[in-house]
Amino acid sequence: MGREIIMLRNHIHHCRASGIFLRLEGGGLIAGNNIYHNAEAGVDIRKKSNPLILCNQIHHGLRSGIVVLGNGKGIIRNNQIFSNKEAGIYILYHGNPVVSQNHIFRGHAAGIAVNENGRGLITENVIRENQWGGVDIRRGGVPVLRSNLICFGYSDGVVVGDEGKGLIEGNTIYANKGCGVWMMSSSLPHVTSNHVSYNGLYGVAVFSQKDGSGEFPGGHGAQESFSEDGDAILWETELEKDEDPLRRPVTVALVESNSVNHNGASGLYVQSSEALHVITNVIHANGDRGITVAQSSQLTRVANNSISCNRQSGVKVEAQCKVELRGNGIYDNRGHGIITKGDSTVVIENDIIGNRGSGLQLLPMSDTKVIKNRIHSFRAYGIAVQGRAKALVQENIIFQGKTNKTIFQQISNNRECIMQNNKFLVFKKKSDTWRLANPPARPHLENSLRGPSAAHGGQKVTAMATRITAHVEGGYHSKRSIFCTIL
């Protein structure tokens, strides 16, 4: 039977090991203490201990602020955790605390790290100005990360690395110098209903475990190993078999119902050899393209997204990629609506309206099916087929732009470009307008978005594009893209 302790308003500092050490089902209240400059963790919770850690200052430790491991639990609430050399809170070996309403800042590593089958409910914390990822999940970590503010970090907001899992829901991920979310598709993370904005690089970057990289730039490296007490091998025999906190099984990496806006590079960047679903997101006003698919040997499915006002094209698909674009609204981007080199691209039932380049740019050697879309470009072509692009263009409605030459362009006589049953609408006078009706402007978010804030943003962007006129604004933006690479 564990013992209960009460520790109130103490100064605990310069200890040769941990400041406070709980094990063997220890519990109690640890509140209002100043815990600093300890050689190991400020608070160490393990062996089924379950304390209440409340309103402490835990800072300037030589390792982590708080560690929870070996089936340790606990409620960690309203603490100030800052300037520790390792993670502010480190959860591993089936540690499963509730971490809420803490202020975790200016750490020299991650704000919160969840590794080695660590779990936990992490909610309503402010995590800012940390050197590594605001939250770093890898090696079997499977937390629920919900409703946190993760901001002003010197690397990425959230990192889901090798074998990391978890639910990342309803967080505000803002103004981090790296990516908003950096994740491996092989880990099957579920990223939903987050606001990801004003980060320095990509809003969401999806890479593949099979790229063979062991080290990552900008803080993607693993947290240092944890070796206190020398008895790690005993924990595996004591682990509880709790139910997985993810009630709904996830069989594919999922980016769903997020608002991804005003990030420095592409809103979403994909370089992956696993399947990925990108569904009902609002991807708006990012510094490069809305979505860049650089590698996708398995299918990347992009459905019911609003992709608007990005500084380059709405979507770019590179060579040898398999992508399906269905039910998206792609509006008012400063480059092309969609530009593809992919050898298996399906573009079906999208609204591609008001982009400054062509609605669709089909590049040489691409293979694209373009079916039942509504397409319009003010100055360029609705569809431009370059060189020996293979295409089936069928049952689309293509609106005329500002000049008489802006419906369809085919550079060479290409027998592999098949046009069937398309409808071309031309202006008869300058005052002519058309409305997107039957169906209304895409995406149709009402029945599919879970996050109310994302739904509101999607409806607002969609409303901007329901009327098509001959009005057009200035020229292209020439700012170069920013790249986040795997070394």
From TrEMBL:
One annotated GO biological process: regulation of apoptotic process
UniProt cross-references to SMART domains, sorted A to Z: PbH1
Pathway listed: Protein modification; protein ubiquitination
Keywords recorded for this protein, A-Z: Repeat, Ubl conjugation pathway
Positions of the Right handed beta helix domain: 4-103
InterPro entries, per database record: Beta_helix, NosD_dom, Para_beta_helix_rpt-2, PbH1, Pectin_lyas_fold, Pectin_lyase_fold/virulence, SCF-Subunits/Alg-Epimerases
Domain Periplasmic copper-binding protein NosD beta helix: start-end pairs: 257-406
Protein name stated in the entry: F-box only protein 10
Organism encoding this protein: Camelus dromedarius (Dromedary)
